[in-house]
Every structure is written in C-alpha cells, then in structure tokens.
Amino acid sequence: MTGPRRAVVLLSGGLDSTTMLAIARAEGFEPHAMTFRYGQRHVREIEAARRVAAALAVRDHVIVDIDLRTFGGSALTADVDVPRDRTASEMGEGIPITYVPARNTIFLSFALAWAEVLEAGDIFIGVNAIDYSGYPDCRPEYVEAFERLANLATRGGVERTNPTRIQAPLLQLTKRQIIERGLALGVDYALTTSCYDPDEPGRACGHCDACTLRLQGFREAGVPDPIAYA
Known about the structure:
The chain is α/β, with parallel strands linked by helices. It has one domain (5-221): Rossmann fold, CATH 3.40.50.620. It is built from eight helices and five strands, in the order E-H-E-H-E-H-H-E-H-H-E-H-H. The chain has helices spanning 15-26, 44-55, 88-91, 103-118, 140-153, 155-158, 175-184, 209-221, and strands at 5-10, 29-37, 60-65, 122-124, 165-167. Strands 3-2-1-4-5 form a five-stranded parallel β-sheet, with helices on both faces. Helix 1 (15-26) packs across helix 7 (175-184). It is globular. 40% of the residues are buried.
C-alpha cells in the first residue's frame, strides 16, 4: 500500500485511549482522532482529548456532537448518582449504572463512516476486558462482531478493496500493563482524565470506579498518578 497507513482513533482523553493513540503512532499509523461530546456529565474529557491530540500530533482531530441525554439510562448522561468506593468484586457484578446504552456501537459507527471517507482500513478503540467485565460492549466477542458488521456494511468491505480492522490493543491488558506500555512510549498521563465525577476545578474524585481502577493501576506500576485529586 502506498501513502500513509491512516487510522481513526477513538480518543476520549482518558488513560486508555491516550495509551492506545500512542500505540497506533508507534505502529506506524497516521492517526485521525475522533472525540465525542455526547451529553456526558462534564467536559473535562473533551479538554483532555484536545491536550492529548495536540501533544501526540494527530493528523486531524474532530469533535462530534451528539446528545445521548435524549435517552439517559446512565449515570453519565442522566441525573443519577455515580457509584463510589466500590470493591473489585462489586465492580465485577452485573452491568454498572455508568454503562451508557449502545455507546461504543454509536461511536464505532461514526468512526466507520469517517474511515470510509479517509480510506482508512483501521479503527482503534480503547476497550479493555480484564480489569472488570461489566460493560457488554468492551468484550472480545463484541469487537469481533462489529468488525464483521463493518465489512458487510461498507464499500471497501463488500468490494474487498479496503477491509476494516477494529484494533483493540488494550483488550487483554491489565491497567498496570496499560500504564507501563504508555510510559514506555513516553505518554504524559498528566494530560489525561479518567474520573466520572470531577469537582468544579476539574480534580478527580478518587472514589468512582474509573478513579479506583486508575489509582490501583498506578500503584501496581509503582509510579505516582500525576493528575490532581480532590
């Protein structure tokens, strides 16, 4: 193939997607980053995504506006309390209230459309099935199924001129392994945010599931988390 190996990278501004973007660059892809303003509780992750995209010099960075508050159904898009101080066993039981219905399917569909325009054969998504398995759209079976759908639904897939690959390089990594991989690639995690419920100045709460998993990962990696906590 001539020209750059273009890829669409779903970038939330969080630890996982930032690491994934660094991996895509290290593997020789020209990343085109896509971030969503989807009605989430706060805009801190949009700001973080902008910082990360600038620091890692993506080819393009688009911010897509959709409003999943229309449906609600999640602590991230409705007036529902975010769970705090849950144990690992509690996080591993059932589907959490922070699951946003069909979010990854919606995000991947937008990414697929942009990939067709760019003639990019690869879409990167930072899903992870190891730390806890409460999200149905973070499982290997889901990633494989969407890839099959993508190749049934696109010109490049049907004509076999540009098949789509859904890349999920973090799928089987622990949070510690993700952090270690990112540090090895020079990722500055001070640019990122993970918290579901930050305070007004933007400091992480330290108590939601995302903060709990992030802090545990940094402890196990033996390095301090560089972001501010309330």
